[in-house]
Write a structure and sequence with these properties.
By secondary structure, this protein is an alpha/beta fold. 35% of the residues lie in helices and 16% in strands. Helix 1 links the parallel strand 1 and strand 2.
């Protein structure tokens, strides 16, 4: 965790790294955000999550929910404001960020969710990649299927943030691009 040196409490961010659900850690990929967020007056927490293929969906999602609860419980120790808590994740890390925001954002009291180039429709992505002969190995390993059958498609739908879009979600900023 890191944050400003002033009195506080400050808005807090939980950062979730990318890596195709199977690699990376809290010091890789998302590191370029550390300094700008500190300079902007945020307290931030960069977290790890369990990786595929050893751990499959919903393990990373559960880990992000656990991180939110932990930050809220320990907010005062880090001068963080638990009532101003947002999630940021990039690529595969943006997926659990978006899913947690959509499914549990209200319950967890999240104020904002900002996934960077996150897969939000897992079923469409898996079907599109399978049809174009670009094997969706990272998705299959993360979800835990070997054949893109109806059971796999149901699980992909459940794991898709778009499936859980609701009017009472926290605000989302979806960022995509090069």
């Amino acid at each position: 965790a890191s944050g400003p040196d002033a009195e506080g409490p400050f808005p807090a961010l939980i950062l979730v790294h990318g890596g195709g659900w199977s690699r990376g850690d809290k010091q890789v990929f998302i590191k370029p955000l550390f300094e700008p967020l500190t300079e902007a007056g945020f307290v931030w927490f960069s977290v790890n999550y369990r990786l595929a293929p050893a751990c499959r969906y919903p393990a990373p999602v559960d880990d992000v929910v656990t991180a939110v609860r932990w930050v809220k419980e320990h907010a005062s120790e880090y001068k963080a404001d638990p009532k101003r808590l947002a999630l940021i994740g990039e690529s595969a890390g943006g997926h659990p960020v978006a899913l947690v925001g959509a499914r549990y954002g209200k319950e967890l009291g999240l104020r904002a969710v900002a996934p960077f180039y996150a897969p939000c429709d897992m079923e469409s992505l898996a079907v599109e990649r399978a049809a174009s002969d670009r094997a969706p190995k990272s998705i299959a390993a993360f979800i835990g299927y070997t054949e893109l059958n109806e059971q796999a498609r149901l699980l992909l739908r459940e794991a898709s943030p778009v499936t859980h879009v609701a009017a009472d979600m926290p605000p989302f900023l979806l960022i995509h691009g090069d």
